[in-house]
Automatic annotation (TrEMBL):
This is ABC transporter, permease protein, putative. It holds the Pfam family FtsX. Its main location: membrane. PANTHER family: INNER MEMBRANE PROTEIN, MEMBRANE COMPONENT OF PREDICTED ABC SUPERFAMILY METABOLITE UPTAKE TRANSPORTER. It is found in: Cell membrane. InterPro entries: ABC3_permease_C, Membrane_comp_ABC_pdt. GO terms for cellular component: plasma membrane. It comes from the Bacteria. Residues 263-376, 720-830 form the ABC3 transporter permease C-terminal domain. It comes from Celeribacter marinus. Keywords: Cell membrane, Membrane, Transmembrane, Transmembrane helix.
Length: 840
């Protein structure tokens, strides 16, 4: 192989221009730009979280307890080992003024809050002055939404859970708001001392306390955490530190960006079809040149290197364009990104993100380029003397297939490394490969059916239809490339559309039919009978349920750390709702084991949710340790039961026998199913009789979830549209590459007496057939992917969305028609004599 000679020839051919390669450049640039943009935003958020982790958390470390304050000994340990400590209580409650009520997330703070950062208020007063209040009442700082919703003005008297306050200011900036995670109500801030001895923070009510710690700079956070878990409450608390100040936000951003990166890779796969087609078309035009070089004695490897150099240079140019676009997009959108996200963002050019996008782009290009490029060796010198293409059909040689396999494995490995989700990457790869195979087989099936239909009676006498069917089914046509490029883009869009529609339908239609009207929490043991009596006497209440509830942290399984045993399962992360019962509830369906006797007084026994138990690898006889209010309770799992969370009703993952928990301070919860007209008077009566309880309207909670889902849907739809745009570019490239063929075909048909209308009808029909085929396959593949996500990931019922499906079909047909007819019309304008003379 003569590398120098190969480079010389490649450089001279490139001087002639890059005609025919603009599809390759556009496809790679678009795919790389999409991935670079997504990963750059992800890195911007990650660096912002790292840089401002302490401010987001409110300290270098945090110890969070459930349902209780730290004991004197625990607080003394914190004061001894930290430079400063701030004590915070957080809970939900109702804020009222007159007859108006609203749910709020209350943060009760001490005088040291905030340890890091500053609270900004309107009017501009200090937090100390705002919490001090006026007129003998403590002050409250409220989210502007509460002022608007309740029609408040500064200085108005309000009640939070029955305790009186005066609204002193609007909250415009809360430095640690991102660390709080998802909440059902807007924020309120009050002084902790104003609530410490009230029923809102009494034993058994639903509240959490967080102790933010300022630590010496040289503190080893891992060692400090380990020591705290040994010496404080036997580890019965949740620990967070500045390295993960907003874990919920970080997890959400990581998962969403991983999904969008995979969508971007799907876009590169779509673009790869265009890249492969562009290289193949270019090599078709270079057949005589390749044959000449072989006739003159050039080695096969040298000739291969000539075109490898050319494609390599253009690939690097394409990737460079994509990297520039991907780096610039977040910079230009920085004001929008910063305004939309509740966390600090370090917007800039992130080299790691650009390297990641480059790796994806280079490997994707190499995989799709190697297939047509490797067949350059198969072109024979005889092609110089015959009007045929000898070498661009059939499979590449075995060594090239092995090289492609290695590059595919490298691409998968890179995706797993960068996204840190092997399962998601592998299933996405299986989906893309399956779609490829399905689309190729469908394209061949369409071609076969078109050939049969062209000979059928139906097409006789219909010249335009017969020409279209013959073209779709004929050799050397564009059926496969069109169905592949358009079908893959439509498949991604179809899957996203079906998932989005099913989620919206489940929230907007299915849940309200089975979900309760309200959740009622913080019902004290001496109040539960009165609440249930009021519900039973209301004709508008169709059903209600109640249960005692505590919250605890699962710390050990079979004597082993719970997360070590079961992995990062959602049941292990954070605290879980726990209930107790002597008798088996009527709606409890035992799947394995047996419920304890009603008069059971022995060691604690546990009934666990069957599906979650299977996911965690639990079996009957396993022991589980739950920390409740600082006390470890170890019980044996004696039964598994079905727990249905889909109806938004009452469901507990973990239930114990009553003697295990009855003595612990706790409250009760209730769910109310009521007619709409009965809701308002019922809630008013409960609020007057029991001002400490909190009522949560289910529709409002669902609305908060919908707003989050809408953001996710918008992001995923944009990713799918980017893939479809890439498919459209490939489609335009295929149409442009076939323009000379259409010009020649139109010239022949005109010479034989065909009218322009007949020829255009033929071109339109073939485009519509291919677009329809691509859309139908995309519906099947996208619908299957959406069904799998809805059924197995989200555990919901799947309904095929026909509205979305119709739009996909119409869009597929329209896209192929527009691109094909544009180039067909250009071909029609050329005179037949000019075209036919050029072929001589």
């Amino acid at each position: 192989m003569n590398v120098k000679l190969a480079w010389t020839i490649a450089r001279r051919e490139l001087r002639a221009g890059i005609r025919g390669f603009w599809v390759l450049i556009a496809c790679l640039a678009l795919g790389v730009a999409a991935i670079a943009g997504v990963t750059s935003v992800r890195e911007s958020i990650a660096q912002g979280l790292d840089r401002e982790g302490a401010a987001l958390l409110g300290g270098q470390g945090e110890m969070e307890f459930t349902y209780r304050f730290a004991t004197d000994d625990e607080r003394a340990w914190m004061d001894e080992n930290a430079l400063a400590v701030s004590e915070i209580a957080d809970f939900r409650s109702m804020i009222t003024i007159g007859e108006e009520r609203a749910l709020t997330q209350v943060k009760a703070v001490d005088g040291a809050y905030p340890l890091i950062g500053a609270v900004t208020l309107s009017p501009q007063i200090t937090i100390e002055a705002a919490l001090a209040g006026q007129g003998g009442l403590s002050g409250a700082i409220l989210d502007p939404m509460l002022f608007e919703r309740l029609g408040l003005s500064v200085g108005d008297e309000i009640a939070i859970g029955g305790e009186r306050f005066v609204a002193m200011a609007q909250l415009t900036r809360e430095p640690d708001n991102a660390s709080a995670g998802f909440s059902l109500g807007p924020r309120s801030i009050v002084a902790l001392e104003a609530l410490r001895d009230t029923s809102l923070l009494s034993a058994g009510t639903l509240f959490e306390t967080a102790y933010r710690l300022t630590l010496p700079i040289e503190t080893d956070l891992d060692a400090f955490e380990a020591r705290a878990k040994r010496e404080v409450a036997d580890g019965g608390f949740r620990w967070r530190d500045a390295r993960n100040g907003a874990p919920g936000v970080a997890r959400f951003v990581e998962r969403l960006s991983s999904f969008l990166v995979l969508v971007g890779l799907a876009g590169l796969a779509v673009g790869g079809v265009g890249v492969s087609a562009a290289v193949r078309a270019y090599l078709d035009r270079k057949t005589s040149v390749i044959a000449t070089l072989k006739t003159l004695g050039a080695e096969r490897s040298t000739i291969l290197m000539v075109y490898a150099f050319q494609v390599g240079v253009l690939t690097l140019i394409s990737i460079s364009i994509g990297l520039v676009l991907g780096a610039l997009a977040p910079l230009l959108a920085a004001p929008i990104i910063e305004a939309q996200l509740p966390v600090p963002v370090v917007v800039g050019v992130h080299v790691g993100s650009l390297i990641e996008a480059s790796v994806y782009g280079i490997l994707s290009a190499a995989i799709f380029v190697l297939w047509p490029l490797s067949r350059v060796e198969q072109i024979r010198p005889a092609a110089l003397y015959r009007d045929a293409q000898f070498g661009l059909r059939g499979l590449p040689r075995f060594r090239y297939l092995i090289a492609m396999f290695i590059m595919i494995a490298a691409l998968l490995g890179s995706a797993i490394l960068f996204t840190d989700s092997a399962r998601l990457v592998i299933w996405s790869f299986v989906g893309v490969v399956g779609s490829f195979v399905l689309l190729v087989l469908s394209a061949r099936a369409v071609a076969w059916m078109a050939r049969r239909a062209a000979k059928a009676r139906l097409s006789k006498g219909r010249t335009g239809l017969r020409l279209a069917l013959s073209s779709v089914g004929g050799p050397g046509g564009e059926t496969t490339s069109v169905v592949l490029s358009l079908g893959l883009g439509l498949t991604v869009l179809s899957a996203v559309g079906q998932i989005d529609t099913n989620l919206r339908n489940a929230i907007a239609q299915d849940l309200p039919e089975v979900a309760p009207s309200y959740f009622v929490v913080d019902i004290q043991p001496d109040q539960i009978e009165g609440v249930l009596t009021r519900l039973s006497q209301d004709a508008g209440v169709t059903n209600y349920e109640s249960a005692p509830m505590l919250r605890g942290i699962i710390t050990q399984i079979n004597g082993v750390d719970a997360e070590t045993y079961a992995g990062p399962h959602w049941v292990i992360r954070g605290d879980r709702g726990i209930t107790y019962s002597a008798a088996k509830p009527e709606n409890a369906e035992i799947t394995e084991g047996a419920w304890w006797p009603e008069d059971y007084t022995g060691p604690p026994q546990i009934s666990f949710a069957a599906e979650e138990a299977e996911e965690m690898g639990l079996k009957l006889g396993d022991t589980m340790t739950v920390n409740v209010l600082g006390r470890d309770i170890t019980g044996e799992i004696t039964s598994f039961r079905e727990v249905d969370f889909s109806g938004a009703g009452m469901g507990f993952v973990l239930s114990m026998n009553d003697t295990a928990l009855r003595g612990a301070p706790h409250s009760h919860i209730a769910t109310i199913y009521a007619a709409p007209e009965a809701e308002a008077p019922l809630i008013r009566d409960l609020a007057k009789a029991y001002p400490n309880i909190t009522t949560i309207r289910v529709r409002d909670a669902i609305g908060r979830v919908v707003s989050v889902l809408e953001g996710i849907a918008a992001a995923t739809t944009l990713g799918a549209l980017a893939t479809l745009i890439t498919g459209a570019v490939v489609l335009v490239g295929a149409a442009a590459a076939g323009e000379s063929k259409r010009r020649y075909e139109a010239a022949i048909l005109k010479t034989l007496g065909a009218s322009r209308l007949t020829i255009l009808l033929s071109f339109a029909l073939r485009s519509a057939l291919m677009g329809f085929a691509a859309a139908i396959v995309a519906l099947a593949a996208g619908g299957l992917a959406a069904w799998a996500v809805i059924r197995f990931v989200m555990s919901a019922e799947f309904h095929f969305a026909w509205g979305s499906a119709v739009l996909i079909v119409i869009g597929g047909i329209a896209l192929t028609l527009v691109t094909s007819l544009w180039f067909s019309w250009r071909a029609m304008r050329v005179r037949p004599a000019r075209v036919l003379r050029a072929q001589d």
